[in-house]
Structure formats: C-alpha cells, structure tokens
Amino acid sequence: MNENINIVRTAGAVGMAHEHLAIVVALNVPFFIVITKIDLVSPTSTLQNLESFLKQVGSRRVPLIIKNEDDVITAGANQLTENVVPIFCVSSVSGEGLELLLKFLHVLPPGVSIKEKERLEQETPEFHIDENFKAGDVGQVLGGLLTKGVITEGTKMQIGPMKDGSFQNIAIKSIHRNRVPCRMVRASQSAALCLDTYIPGLRNGMVLLSADQNAKGCMFFQASVSVLFHATAIYPGFQTTVHIGNVRQTAVVIGICSSKCIHTNERDSVLFKFKLHPEYVSVGQRLLFREGSAKGTGEITQVFPLNGIQ
C-alpha cells in the first residue's frame, strides 16, 4: 500500500494536470503553478515534467522557479505581460515556500485594467450564451458573459446563428446579476437576460449581438493550429471536438495547407468544418480541439460566413 502511494506522489504532473494546463494555454490566459507536499517528496521530477510541457510547441512559455523575493518581484511584474509562468514549491506542513507565494499574490496587478474595461464598454455589445431556460411566467432566460459593450433593459439585439446561419431580432426585457434585478450589464460581467419573446431552437453557444450588425454564422473556418499530442498524425477527415469561447461542437478537418498531415509538436494552417450547425466565430479567437488523448490549440485566421468571406 505504501509503495503504491509513493509511486503516485513521484509521478509528477500527469493526467488531469496536463489537461488543465492545455486548457489555460489554449485560452491564452496568464497563470502560475503551485507544487505542494514538498515535505514528502522532492519536486525535481515534477519540475522537469512541467518545464518540458511549458516549452513545447503550442505553449512556448518561460518557466520561472521562485526561490527568493527577487524572483517574486520579477514574476509579479512580468507574469501578466509576458509568457512567464511562475512555479512555487510549497509545504503546508513545514510552511516552506508559503511566504513567497503570499508575497506574489500581493504584488500581482489586476487582470483587466480600468482603461481596458472602458475600451471594451465602448464597443458594440456581444453576449456569449452559456445556458438557456424558461423560468415560469418570466419567459425565456439566457445566461452567459458579456465580452464587449453595454446592455440595458429594452436594448434591441439579434440572436443566433440559427440553423440557416441567420440571426433573429429580439429585445432585452429584464436583466439579473447574482439573482438580483439590475438595469445594466457591462463588458466582462456575467448576467441572466430575459427576452421579450420566445425563440424556439435556442442552444448554448449562440451569441447576442447589436441589432445593426450584419452578422452571419459560418460552417467553415481556417485556423493556425499546433498539435500538442497525437498518437500518429492528423489527416483530412479527422473529426474532433472544438472549443472556441462558448462554442463546443464536433468539427471535421477538411484540409491541411502545407502538408498532408500534422504530427505531435507540429504547426500548420487547417481548414475546419462544423459538423452539425453553423456557429458565430471571429478572427483572432483562440481554440482548443481534442479527441481522446489527441489535443491541440490554435487561433482562427479566417472565417467563411454563409454569405461570403471575412
């Protein structure tokens, strides 16, 4: 029994830890890593495992092992602006490393600056739908995140894409945040929006956009992708689950631009097609695709809406 426990402890970052790392890298968000229980097992093998993962293609992060206060200041100043990933080794039993971790949390700058929030609020609204349901007499309710702009009660918007790629006009009847009614929701805030009319066929992954936008869904899109792992190689015809923001759908690899296939740790431009229905995606969005043990990341470079090219 003890031998089995020791094997697990010395295995390093495996399984779900790599899954979580792949997701945060795909979303292109800053992060740091804390290795615990160093009073029981030396973190050497885990550090080597993490450094190898962070430096591979598709990630290209710079691991910084925090050893003193100077490292804390360096990590705090660069972690949100560069590809630096601070790594802390701590023990809750002996207290080793905890003081450095606390100091790092104190020097971290805010995730989104006031100027950035103000810039986002000036843009046309874009609300990503994560859930939808009907609440008694209230009507149809959409839960999600407002990524850009400002929405108030009575705002005229459009929702979609529908099965044919089109959008349908609606108006916001009421707004709730944390189950409390409010008049307005701003960029980077989550909310529940009640619509003024019932729309059949709504699904998670749709978006709410400004009523004056010429929005269309797409079935085809092109992305620059990096394969984090595949047992053999990815060829045209490969089907995979694609995650793009709030969008999650099976997509098929239609073509690979500069080669016949892509192997682990290789990068190429790939043409995808959604398998079931059109989605609203835009150039510059990050994506994560996975199928079994195969996984990769990328960025959308071109969108082919149902009525033309973007």
What is this entry, summarized?
The chain is of the alpha+beta class and 310 residues long.
Describe the structure.
With 310 residues, this protein is of the alpha+beta class. The protein folds into 3 domains: 106 residues, no CATH class; 94 residues, Elongation Factor Tu (Ef-tu), domain 3; 88 residues, Translation factors (Elongation Factor Tu (Ef-tu), domain 3), CATH 2.40.30.10. 19% of the residues lie in helices and 39% in strands. A 6-stranded antiparallel barrel has the order 4-5-11-8-7-12. A 6-stranded antiparallel beta barrel has the order 13-16-15-14-17-18. Strand 4 and strand 5 form a beta hairpin. Helix 4 runs parallel beside helix 5. The relative contact order is 0.12. The N terminus is likely disordered. Keywords: GTP-binding, Nucleotide-binding. Its main location: cytoplasm. It is found in: Cytoplasm.
Q: What can be said about the biggest beta sheet?
A: 6 strands, antiparallel, barrel
What is the strand arrangement across the widest sheet? 4-5-11-8-7-12
3D shape: globular
**N-to-C terminal Cα separation, in Å?**
59 Å
Computed structural class: alpha+beta
Number of helices: 6
Uncertain segments are 1-10
Cα-based radius of gyration, to the nearest Å: 22 Å
Instruction: Estimate what percentage of residues fall within beta strands.
Output: 35-45%
What's the β-strand tally? 18
